[in-house]
Every structure is written in structure tokens, then in C-alpha cells.
Specification:
alpha+beta, 5-stranded antiparallel sheet, 1 helix, 51% strand, elongated
Length: 139
């Protein structure tokens, strides 16, 4: 399963590369965060119904945070019902990066997506909250 998730993530990164180069041209408005330079929220479902969730974050080079309390929700698109909730506390590496991933076996066919909330803390104080949503995928 890890191999499938890594393959999915590599494909998503390759597809996102041209879009991010285009977005940097100033043609579109991108959200600007205070403590984060880049955040990726990637979601996919395998043919056997395993939902693969991935969040990756690059810290700002000047404004840094101590840790993030991450909450990830797998949601059914038809009624926005939360199917699974994951929580984790993540600490950025010395290079200012962290990533998180997990899987969940879906019990019903349908269209799903992922929402993630990153609450960033510096010295125990909440300094920024970032909400991201993935694209939908169907099982």
C-alpha cells in the first residue's frame, strides 16, 4: 500500500509542477499564509476502496512555528458527512518540512474528498490556522 501511495503522490507532484509555475506568474490569486510557504493536501482512492490521505507542508523561511496540530477528515461528497477523522501532532524538520499520511478502508462506494486543518503553534500559542480541501475521488 505504501508503494501505491508513493506512486499516487509522485503523479500528483508531477501534474502540479506546471500549474505551480503558471500560478507564480501572477495570473491567479494564491492564498498567502504567514508561517507556511507551501501546503499540499492529496487524496486518492484505490480500486479496492482504500482511501489514501497525504498532507505536506513547507515552513516559511523567516516566520517559523514549533508544531502543528493536524486534523484530517475523509468526507462523503453527496452529503458532506465525515466518514473518518485522523489527528496528529507534527513537528517540522530542521529544514522546515513535515508530512503526514494514512489510509482508511471505505465501506461503501461513492465520491469522497479530504479536508485538513493545520493549527500552527509557536511556543505554545496558536499563531495560524490553515484549512485545505483535496479534490474528490470516486470508489
Amino acid at each position: 500500500m505504501k508503494k501505491k501511495l508513493l506512486t499516487l503522490l509522485m503523479i500528483c507532484c508531477l501534474l502540479a509542477a506546471p500549474a505551480s509555475a503558471w500560478a507564480d506568474s501572477g495570473s491567479t490569486v494564491q492564498p498567502r499564509y504567514t508561517y507556511v510557504d507551501i501546503i499540499h493536501t492529496i487524496f486518492g482512492i484505490t480500486s479496492s476502496g482504500e482511501a489514501c490521505c497525504y498532507v505536506s507542508l513547507e515552513e516559511d523561511t523567516v516566520k517559523t512555528f514549533t508544531y502543528s496540530k493536524l486534523t484530517v477528515y475523509i468526507k462523503r461528497a453527496s452529503d458532506d458527512k465525515t466518514i473518518k477523522t485522523f489527528t496528529a501532532t507534527k513537528y517540522p524538520s530542521a529544514g522546515g518540512h513535515f508530512s503526514w499520511s494514512d489510509e482508511y478502508q471505505l465501506t461503501a462506494r461513492g465520491t469522497y474528498y479530504m479536508k485538513a486543518t493545520n493549527k500552527l503553534y509557536k511556543n505554545g500559542n496558536l499563531v495560524e490556522t490553515i484549512h485545505t480541501t483535496s479534490v474528490e475521488d470516486t470508489y
